[in-house]
Structure formats: C-alpha cells, structure tokens
Amino acid sequence: MQSMNLHHLRYFLTIAEEGSISAASKKLLVGQPALSAQLKHFEEWIGVQLFKRIGKGLVITQSGEFVFKYAKAIRALEEELMANLGHAGEISKKEFVIGAQESVPKSILAHAISVISGIKKVKLSIVEGTGDELFHLLVSHKIDFFIGNFRPMQETKEMLYLSLSKETVSVWGSKKFTHLKKNFPASLENKTFILPGFQNQLRHDFERYMLQSGIGFEVSIEAQDTSLQKELAIRGDGLIILGDESARFLVETGQIIKIGSIKGLTEEYWLGMVKKNIDNDYIKSIMSAF
C-alpha cells in the first residue's frame, strides 16, 4: 500500500478543526475546489467517509472522529520533531508518551501525570483515546503506558498492569433528585441515566446490577467523557454513576448529591505498560504515590 500523504492528514485536520472547507481554505491558503478534491482523494484512499454534508456545513462522521484523534497525535509528533531537531544531542531527558483513556476522571489522570512529571528528567506527551485504541498503541510501542479503567481479557507476559485506585461506585444527581434517596435502589425504577458507552466496563457492571435487582431504567444520553457526564448531571438532565472520589469535589461544592452507593460495584483504574520499556525506578515512584 502507498504511504499516507501527510498533506492529506493536515488538510483533513484543518477542515475538522475549522468546521468547513471554506474556513480551512482561508487558513491553509488553498483554493476550495483543490481542497475539496484533496479531501475526496483522501477519503477514497482510506476507504471511509470522513464528513457528512448537512446543508452548507460539514459534520464529522464516527470514522472521521477516529482518524481525527490519530491525525492530532501525528501533528503533535511532527511539531515535537521540528522543535527538537536542534537538540538531538540532549538524550539525558527521559520521554514518556502516556495514553489516557477518555473515561478516566480528570482528577485521577492529573494526579498520575503530576507524579510522573515530578520524576527527574522526564518529559511527557499525552494521547487520549478509547481503551481499545490505547491498547493497540501500547502493544505497537507508540505509547509507553496508559492510564484507564480498561484491562484486556487476554494478557501477555510482556504486559504489566498495576492497580492505581479502586473506588466505590454510587449514583449521583442534582438536588432535584433528593427524594430518590428514600427506598434506594428501588427508587431508581424507570429513572433516566447518563451513562458511558458500551465499551465501558462500568456500564456493563451497572446494567448487570440493575438487571439482577429487577430495576428498569432508561438511558437518555451516552457520553464517554466523565467531565461531560458531570456537567449534564449538574444541569439535572439525568442521573450518573461515578466513583465516590471522582465525585467528591462536586459534592463538596454542592453541585450534585449522592443518591446511594451501589452494593458490590467498584471501578478500578490501571496503569498498563510493556515491561521492557519502563525502568523499575519509574514504576516504583508512580506506585508509591498511589
């Protein structure tokens, strides 16, 4: 197969970020007909539709979102390469590329990043993605390790998974749901929830719990990003499920309340890595902080 043209990636990325071919055309100083032709050629080459045209605008497709994440990562690496070409001799500083699963609470992710960045002579790059995407990046050695609530069913001898944190999971909502505290969890019958997507393990565990408890419920919104889940819960758009530590700040500031803890349901966060790629001193430093 012919190698991917980086110009095509750059054109696609700019169109996605600007929201239209006309806006991207002005930024790239490339004519609209030429840019449209390049986009069409790129779509034909990779075999997927990247945008849907709605009216005069463009809406990125699910496949487009997938390509967009990689395009951003490639651009970041390209910029890093150009920025560091004059410092090729400076090899003493350890570089880590961290894969961060989108569903991990930002508080846990920030703590892990803070710990790692505090290690002497470490430079960090962060790549976000789903659990499956990060696992494939890890085994192909494109990232050093990932932080997530995702642990593959099949593990190899080269892989190492360390538990960073385990939280009790509870149901949370705005104050208008205070009455649901009474007779919990039966009070959740037919209530509306904002849940992560089906690829999220916590989603599966919660649905299994509700099924075994004989409690019916509705899913009004699926959102993988926990920050968005929290914002929607604050607005009163539905109930969410989160670890107690992940919700602590919102509770302390009075933005949401705990409806009740789900018996036996926990969420665990992992540090996944390829053993030979990570120095033991770094592993010890990271784990000691948790």
CATH homologous superfamily heading of the largest domain: Periplasmic binding protein-like II
Give the helix/strand class: alpha/beta
Sheet-strand content, in percent, reads 25-35%
Question: Could you list the spans in which at least 5 consecutive residues all have pLDDT below 50?
Answer: none
Major beta sheet summary: 6 strands, mixed
**What is the helical fraction, as a range of percent?**
40-55%
The arrangement of helices and strands along the chain is HHHEEHEHEHEEEHEHEHEH
CATH architecture of the largest domain: 3-Layer(aba) Sandwich
At the fold tier of CATH, the topology name of the largest domain is D-Maltodextrin-Binding Protein, domain 2
User: How many discrete domains?
Assistant: 3
Spatial separation of the terminal alpha carbons: 45 Å
Number of helices: 10
CATH top-level class of the largest domain:
Alpha Beta
Number of strands: 10
Structure description:
With 290 residues, this protein is α/β, with parallel strands linked by helices. The chain has ten helices and ten strands. The protein has helices at 6-18, 21-28, 32-46, 62-84, 106-117, 131-139, 201-213, 226-234, 244-252, 280-288; strands spanning 51-54, 57-60, 94-101, 122-129, 145-148, 159-173, 191-195, 217-222, 240-243, 257-274. It is globular and about 65 Å long.
